[in-house]
């Protein structure tokens, strides 16, 4: 392909550079104003009650690309985790471009599009493993790697100005159990041929050593489950198909039949089977059949490893599950990590289970999980294979990306650059450099409405959570005189404070004759807040409305 | 002392049996209705934005003892951590009994009483180390143990019906560095003489092995600090006086002078010195002096290891500290553990520091901390010393207490009992047994007001955080006809939802002629909520008020 002297190759992360989640990386090629773009991954970040109450998921603000929609050639998904594909059905209507993914990933994307009523509109193009595709100036090669889900891919993105290797999420697992091992030959060859930039997973850049293989967990789970007597429930990420298979094999080895419990568990097993995985997965009982088995003959494979309030395991622990109950002599194994921030809800679930007499075994005290992300020795191995001129840590918080950049420098990568969402990094020509800062930020799925983080709704509701709300309505006549008793609504405020607020406001109103209504409104607001602060030590959100009769 | 055949020895935990924090254990002796009580520890639990927004601390509901205040002989504090003494100044006015503690603990209790304006009312009686005291039917011996603060004590509580050993918080640290080592002779002798019940710390009952000694951290910190070039800040729990001393010695060994940053840091060092500890602690610079030193000559010892928003380290990371700023080449060491639930705010602090170019070192990837609580091998050692008839795990969530009870049974303790707050456990005579369930629960310090958890304020504010609030005021005339436009206050609700709510309510009002006002109120409430749910997918807290003109 012909190049012009104004051509530039740029990376614009709109998500994931600063958080683990919400991955969204745009690569642009061409002269400014005429660039063609591809998007690698389009994921969500989950909301949290303490920081974004009432928000289920968040996704990147892609307004910069929305304005250039005609030049966005495709969304390419590296793998099927929610933080890589979970925003496609929300953001596709803005970009309206084809979506490329390998079979298992494509299957799951299609399921989401189906639910969103977009199945007929979106072209999801299936790329075979090791496949290649050309999108304008970009030639993309899918390189099989290993992670904690079937079909993870690194992307080798060839452009006239050099090759970028975008790792997606990965680890080096010599025995991933499901799917292919890391295509080390391809990675080595990329390095030998020369790579401009490695854009790489930072999740475990603070973790020494190696992540360890799924095969070691398989053995450990088999041993552990062999020692257990009563009912056994195992909870794991439903997308970790190798783990589900390990649990199923351990069950079979010890004479237990399995039941899948929870919607995601069934959906993921089905997607895996439909795309050729889990060929020798044992027959699965339904919950009612399983309930009829003796305790030592059953194993439940459940959703809910993060203590999610509506997941199967939480319902079981609450005694609210229709078909399953656990008690003394039974065991629950959490074959998963704790996603930071989920500690309290996970431990609350452990406590509920302990309260039922159930023994809880987890990665905190048993070897029942390995991470899907590269620890420092694996990162070092990747840098030895690829030997890039530029290291760009992504998929991490600042602390992970900084540690990753330090590691890359220590491995003699000539340039390691940490950037934030919205930073447009020119990778070529010349030294890597931030050349622009585009609009960026988060969009919240608040209920069923997409709301910009900048609108401040979450912040407003956190204020309500902190100190509650006072709403006062004053009724005025045509002359601006108070014509009725004020109406008070106080919510989330201790009872004794109510009287203090009422008294202070009523006193203020009594002094008001007529005239400046805006001043009255503001005075009442100030007086109400002040009275609350005096009585309580906190200032509620306070709103005053006027109505006229 | 003479005993009657109706005498019973009971344990009534009102806090700590089900949570790590808010420790409050009452021991009662005598026939029902005539029992005398002592309270061991009286601590707080810290509030959390996601579960108890706007609540600083929580403490036990002690209404059961309040009704028997005349029979409460004393509060005895085992050591000075907030979860053991932090509620004394809130609950003393209810109990009005003397408080007993060893010198360092007494010093800190007095400081709190001073701030609460109770210094003159409360008798804090200083008990020497290894001291004994008699309180009605209880003879109490203080047994020196080790923990992560000076002067931790186990209590041997002798009664006519047997001896209870109440461990408080402990570990087995052969070199605690500050204060005495574990009085193993006394513990052994107690075991040899015969112990009825061991009431014991469960915090680390899920952790294998041993906690490790402060002395190993001292060496590691000295080595680590020796490798650092720029400014160094270390954050640790201010009450871990041995740790502060280790940091100070490491600083001195590497030519750095120290400054104490944060109010708690200064307060704790002062209390330690006033009670004879830290005799060779180096001279401390004030922040201004420290700012004039070259970076490699200074070490800041800071509060804020949990990412507390108002603590020194957070202010430094925000660039809001008057005298201290950190940047590239500087290092912050978190010589502390992450208290579960604090992950996100601690990592947010790490990220801010990483954003300044500061390197962050923490217990996640460096050996800079040991726990103050007994891991399983230490628990086993304690059971070998004490050999109780009854094990009562306390100071833990259910998951810890259950694991602790299983461990005790595996060590052939004849009876291990897990109880909840409010369960009155008869320890003697006869088999240990829950004989009563008293009122229990939590009291929230909400602003400056104490509010029962049962009042539901936190829950109400969480609802506001989830879906915001609608307050509607309707103005009616004497005939019950709507006499003005309704007033709407909507807070925390997306803008497009507002119009939907207004339209639906106005339509409803237009249809209303006169008459049943309660029905109108309820209809408007239902219509507003329904409209919000339709437009948004969430149902705000909705309140409707009527006023009459």
Write the layout of secondary structure elements.
Two copies of one chain form a homodimer.
Chain A (H helix, E strand, L loop, with lengths): L7 E8 L8 E7 L5 E7 L2 E2 L8 E6 L2 H4 L5 E5 L5 H4 L2 H8 L3 E3 L1 H13 L8 E3 L5 E4 L2 E7 L8 E7 L2 E5 L17 H10 L3 E5 L12 H13 L5 E4 L5 H13 L3 E5 L1 H12 L9 E2 L1 H5 L6 E5 L9 H6 L13 E4 L8 H13 L3 E4 L13 H11 L3 E5 L3 H13 L4 E2 L6 E6 L4 E5 L4 E5 L2 E4 L4 H11 L1 E8 L10 E5 L3 H17 L5 H20 L4 E8 L1
**Beginning-to-end CA distance, first to last residue of chain A:** 75 Å
Beta-strand portion of chain A reads 25-35%
Alpha-beta classification of chain A: alpha/beta
- Residue stretches of chain A low in confidence (pLDDT < 50, at least 5 long) are none
Record field, number of beta strands of chain A = 28
What value does the average pLDDT of chain A take?
96
Greatest chain-chain contact: A-B, 77 and 77 residues
The number of helices of chain A is 16
Instruction: Please give the order of strands in the largest beta sheet of chain A.
Output: 8-7-6-3-2-1-22-23
Give the oligomeric state of the chains in this entry, treating copies of one chain as homo and distinct chains as hetero: homodimer
Determine Rg of chain A (CA atoms, Å).
28 Å
Tell me the major beta sheet of chain A: 8 strands, mixed
Coarse morphology of chain A: globular
**What proportion of the residues of chain A is helical, as a percent range?**
25-40%
